[in-house]
Every structure is written in structure tokens, then in C-alpha cells.
Amino acid sequence: MLLVLSVPSCFGQERITTVSSQDIVKAVTQAKGKVVLLNFWASWCGPCREEIPALIALRKSIPEDKLLIIGISLDTDPSAVAAFAAKTGFNYPVYKAGDDVPQAFSVQAIPRTIVYSPTGEMIESTEGFSSAEDIQRLVARAMGS
After folding, report:
1. Rounded to a whole number, what is the largest CA-CA distance in the chain?
2. How many structural domains does the chain have?
3. Which domain holds residue 99?
4. What is the pLDDT along the chain (145 residues), one digit of tens a residue?
5. What is the domain-level CATH number for residue 60?
6. Is 5 part of any domain?
């Protein structure tokens, strides 16, 4: 089943959609012309929780027609993702990773951020906490700024 990942999934919802690696690849492919930032996280991960406000601020500062941010939770319990999303106030779509996602995207540690250029080429992949400035630099580089 193909999911449309370009619309926020968690706003006001009690359920979080689970996505497969193919769903994510399709979203990246369909976002040609935009920088795509994938952020793999979990509600129990301290560095992830520290990083998320920078992504929320980034979403506010760069229009959606230039940057697609997708949050992918590695929590095993969808209700934990939904509860965290409800109190966090994400302004970008958030999903629960399907079983194939961590291996497909080589997620060995979180947070993990992968940035794709507007042509769909992966240009950056980082593991561990990134500061707001680091994230802004990654996105600016992907935008050619």
C-alpha cells in the first residue's frame, strides 16, 4: 500500500501511520526539486528530543516547496509515538518506521539525519545529535546556498 508522505500525518490524530522503506523512497523520489531531510528518532532518545525543536524551527524558516522534512520514529509502540507527537507539536509529518526501515536506511544509532538534494541524491548522512546550526548548514549546502 502506497502512502502519501507529503501531508502531515500526526496533527490532531491519535494514530500514527507506519511506513515501509519503499514508502520513504517513493516520498524522496516524488519530492524532486525540494531538499528532503529524513530524521530517524525515538521518543525515549534524549538527543533526539533535543534535536527536534531545531527541526521544527527549520520547518518554520524554510517553505515547504523548498524543504520536505519527514520524521520517522523507531519506537516499537505506535501509541508512544502518538503521545509524544501530541505534546511536541511537530509541524512536519511524523511516521512510525516499519520493520524494514532501519536496515534499509542503515540506521545503527539515533538520531540519524539523511539529507537529499533537490535532484534526489543523498548528500549527507549523520548519526548522533546535530545542533540547530549543524542542521541549518546541512540544508543550506543541499540547497546550494
Report:
1. 39
2. 1
3. 18-143
4. 333 343 344 444 457 899 999 999 999 999 989 999 999 999 999 999 999 999 999 999 999 999 999 999 999 998 999 999 999 999 999 999 999 999 999 999 999 999 999 999 999 999 999 999 999 999 999 998 6
5. 3.40.30.10
6. no
